[in-house]
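S.,

Sequence below, as promised.
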Amino acid sequence: MTTKTTTFSATRSNTLAFAMAVVVGVALLTVSGMAQATVLHDAAHDQRHAMAFPCH
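The prediction came back faster than expected:
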């Protein structure tokens, strides 16, 4: 029974880590892709083009 608990715990931990990575990645792309302020635009400009995200 200990093995099942350990396996479930490890699977849950991996799933949580993957979900957090996806959320952070989408948030970074959204913030840099939708930035309208000049300072934010200039800071994210090269990254936008590197990711093929249109900004003009």
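The helical segments are 2-34, 38-50.

Coffee later?
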